[in-house]
Design a protein that fits this description.
The chain is of the alpha+beta class and about 675 residues long. The protein is built from 24 helices and 22 strands. Strands 12, 13, 14, 15, 16, 17 and 18 form a seven-stranded antiparallel beta sheet that branches. It has a five-stranded mixed beta sheet with strand order 2-11-10-3-9. The radius of gyration is 28 Å and the shape is globular.
Length: about 675
Amino acid sequence: MSITEEEKIEKLREEIRLHDYKYFVLAQPSISDEQYDRLVKELERLETENPHLITPDSPTQRVGKDLTKEFKPVTHKVPMLSLANTYNEEELFDFDRRVKEALPAGEVAEYVVEFKVDGASVSLNYVNGYLKTAATRGDGFVGEEITNNVKTIKSVPLKLTKVDSLPYKLIDIEVRGEIFMKIEDFLKLNKEREEQGEKLFANPRNSTAGTLKMQDPKIVAKRPLNIFVYTLISLEEEYNSQNENLQILKRLGFNVNPEYKLCKDINEVLAVCRKFEAMRDSLPYEIDGAVVKVNSIRQQKILGSIAKSPRWAVAFKFKARQAYTTINKITWQVGRTGTITPVAELEPVFLAGSTISRATLHNFDEIKRKDIREGDKVVIEKGGDVIPKVVSVIISERPQNSKPAKPPDKCPVCGSLIYKPEDEVAYYCDNSECPAQVKGKIAHFASRGAMDIEGLGEALINLFVDMDFIKTYADIYELKSRREELINIERLGEKSVDNLLNAVEESKKQPFAKVLFALGIRYVGAGAAKKLADHFKSINDLMKADEEEISSIHEIGPSISGSIKDFFANEINRNLVSRLRNYGLNFSSEKKVVKENFLTGKTFVLTGTLSRFSREEAGDKITVLGGKVTSSVSNKTNYVIAGENAGSKLTKAQKLGVKIMNEDEFLKHLDEALRQ
C-alpha cells in the first residue's frame, strides 16, 4: 500500500529529528553531512509542494524569516531565582546544616550535584508536547520572549519524544536550562569577527547572551549555540525528585549533561565538587562551579526560598583562576551613591576567557592592608570568575622608588569635598549633583531590571549629562521636548531618536515594583522592591510607614527600612518622586478585589515546618486572600501559624498574648475563604 504525501513528510521529519538528536545531543552522528542535507532538501521540496502540510514543529521551521522587533515580556510561572554561592567546605556544610534544621525531625536529605555551566539561562514552555515559548531569566519574575531565536538551536526539541511509559501527563511543562557556546566554537566565531573587522566578544557567556537578543533568527542560526537542561516544572503535577526529572528530560529528547551525581550526604557532595573542579580545564565548555540541589521535590517545597534564592539549592564556586600583571596606575571612580572606589589600571592580561585591564581595589583600607602601590607586580583573580580583583603583591619585585598610595583629598570627578563616616571604610563625594553620581543613578534607573529604557545606554547617558540635557533621572521624561536638538547630534539621527523617545514613553508601563527599584534606594534590590510593593501597594503608604512596619516584612531588615526612611526624608528625592508621578509612572499596584473572608486585613507570622506546603507557599495564599505576612511577632500580629519545631517566634507570641493557630486550623480557614 502506497503512503500519502502527509505520511511521507511526517516520516522524513521523524528521521531528521532522530539525526538531530544523535548529532547535537548524543554527539553520535549515524549519517554524513551530505546525507543529512539531502533529507532536509527533500523535506523542503515536499513542503513547498504541499504548503498546507507545514507545521510549526517541522525541522524546516527552525529559522524564521521575520525579524523580532520586540522581545515581549513573559511572566515565569515559578520565579527563576539565582543561587546563593558557597566558596569552601565550611560554607557547604553550613548549607547542609540549614537544610537539616528546616526539614521535619528524622528526615534525611539526598543531593544531586550538577555542573554550573557558564551561559545564559532560559525557560522553555511546552504545551501538549510542542514548544510554545522560550524566555530569558530577566529579573527572575519576568523575562523576555526569545522563542524565534531558541528554535534555531538544534539541541532544543520543537516536539517532545513521546514516551508512553512515563507516569506523568506532561501536558503543560516548563523546562529550564543553560544556553552556552563551546570554547572552540567561541574562538572560531571571534576569529571570523576579527577578520571582518568586527568587535570581539569578551567570553563565551557574553557572546551567547548577545546572540539570544539578536533581531534576525537567520544570523542566530549561524551562531554555534547549544543547551543543557536541568529543571522540569509543572503546576499541574507533583514530581518526585530532581534525579528522576533529569532522567525524564533525557527520555523526552533534551540534552541533559551526563556529568551529574546523586549523593547520599554532604561528604559525597564535597567529593563530587572536588572531582568536577579537577575536570574543569579538560571540558569543551566553560563551567564556574557545581550546583547542589536537594533531591526530593517534596523537601524542596518545605524548604522554600528567600527573596533572591531557593533554600534547597546552592552553587559551589570553584577557586578563582589567577594571573600575574603590573599595576600601571591607581584611579578613583564615583558610584551612584557617591561611594569613591579605588581601581587598579593594569597591564592587560588574559584570564579565564577574557582580557583584564582593570581590577577593583574595594576601598582604601584594603589598599593599606595589602600595601598595594602603583608599579607593583601583583596576582589577580576573578572573584567568582566575574569581577577581577588584586589578591596579593609580589614585594620582591617592587620598584625602588615606590611610594604608598594615598586616598584622594577631593572628589576625582567634581572636585567637591569628600567625607568618611566613622562606621564605614568607604569615602563619599558630598555633592549629590556630581556628574558621576548623576550618570550612575540614571544608568541604574534606565537599566533592564528597572525602567528598561532600551537605547539609553552608558554612551548616551554620558553625552546627555555632559550637554546638560539630563541632571536627574526625572529629566529623561523631558527629552521629548528636545527632539529637534537630539536629531542634530552627530551619530543619532531621526530614527534612533524616535526609537529612544518611544522607549522612554513605553517605560511608563513598568509596574510599581520596578519603579521602586529604579529609584535607587540604597539596599533596595529588585527582590526587596517587589516585597515592598506587594505589601504597601502604593508609594504613599510606603512613605508614611515607620521603620518597625517596614522591617516586619518577611526578609526586609533594619538596614533596608532605615535607608528607605532616609531616602524619603530628603526633599530632593520627594520632589523627584512627585515629578515622576506627574509624568505618569506607576507608583501604586492595583489592589485585587478580594471577597471579605477570615484572612482579609489580618497580619500573620509563620513559624516552624508546615507539612502540606512551604512557609513561602502558605504566605502567598494568605496574601492572595487579602492578609499580610510579616517576619516578626509584635502587638500588631493577629495570628501566629505554628508548624512543627516552632521556635522563638512562638515563645514571643505566647508572651504577648498573640493568638496561635496550628496548621489544621489554618487549612480550615483557608478552605472556607477559598469557597466564599
